[in-house]
Amino acid sequence: MLLSETAENIKKMEIRGAGRIARAAVEALADFARNLDVSDPETFKREMQGAAGVLTATRPTAVSLPNAVRYVMRALDSFESVEAAREATLSRAAEFIEHSEHAVEWIAEIGARHISDGDVLLTHCNSEAALGCILEAHRQGKEIEVYATEVRPRGQGLITIRTLNEAGIRTNYIIDSAVRYFINDVDLVIVGADAIAVNGAVVNKIGTAQIAHAANEARTNVIVAAETYKFAPRTILGEKIEIEERDPAEVLPREEAERLPFVRVRNPAFDVTPAEYIDLIITERGAIPPELAYTVIRDYLGWRIEEFR
Ligand code: RI2
């Protein structure tokens, strides 16, 4: 697939999910490097930087995307020839994809340990990391039941219930606003993440913060399943994570909206759940309390405050 096609598919959410868009971007970048027909190393680097920019501009919130692209682009920190640069780029891209696929498996394994036989779970949106934990617990023979939300406006809940159904897991499909109604029947909320700030706040699909709030009130634990590359290094500097606001037509058809001149449709795709509402973050390196987010950024992403000076 061409780089511009991948970028378009990410924008339109035909490729979606924070982990999947990171892998798709890395594949597109590798493909671009493979076919880049230039002889001068500096031109190679400049073209690659352009391609990286196109990919990272597609969706602003999921930090997995710039983290993954940065991981690959580090191949171009120093190199002697176009061929050396190309080879280094391809090998870092392959490394990222392999790590990412394993990370999802490790998270599933670690996350499943936090799910007990007989548990009723609630998940929101469609996170491969969160679903991985649920599927693994089921595979291990634990008797579980799941509440899955609809996820207005894009309806990612449908993908989730299809997967759960296929696995033979007893599932309740509910509208987003029914979460509080059912929360007392739930033992554990498990969701994914698009970004995690240095203070442990989790950015995830719109509605997650409301769910975490309801869970907190009901004394129901909330766990987040997220690969280490979903932690946001720049939040060390106090940089805010940008919340993507998508086309209002996803919420209300344009013709209807045009008939309502005093109404402005708002469509933020994500919200922020404060660390105090999160019990545990399951990463591929182990389960941590949200307060330890900085150590993940430092130890696994290799970013330190010095890097920004
Ligand atoms: P995985 C998704 O965003 C959801 O918010 C989901 O919780 C998160 O990415 C993480 O997904 P969107 O692309 O990486 O649906 O765990 O807007 O699959």
Tally of helical runs: 11
Strand percentage lies at 5-15%
Shape category? globular
C-alpha Rg (nearest Å) = 20 Å
What portion of residues is helical?
A: 40-55%
Write down how many β-strands occur, each being a DSSP E stretch of 2 or more residues: 10
Largest sheet: 7 strands, mixed
Give every kind of bound small molecule, once each.
Answer: 1,5-di-O-phosphono-alpha-D-ribofuranose
The helix-and-strand class reads alpha/beta
Strand order of the largest sheet: 3-2-1-4-7-9-10
Mean of residue pLDDT? 96
Taken in chain order, the helices and strands follow as: HHHHHEHEHEHEEEHEHEEEH
Would you kindly provide a written description of the structure presented here, covering whatever features stand out?
The chain has eleven helices and ten strands. By secondary structure, it is an alpha/beta fold. The strands form two sheets. A seven-stranded mixed sheet has the order 3-2-1-4-7-9-10, sandwiched between helices. It has a three-stranded antiparallel sheet with strand order 5-6-8, with helices on one face. A hairpin with a 2-residue loop joins strand 9 (about 280-285) and strand 10. Helix 1 packs antiparallel against helix 2, helix 3 packs antiparallel against helix 4 and helix 5 packs across helix 6 (about 130-140). The longest helix has about 30 residues, at about 80-110. The two termini are about 40 Å apart.
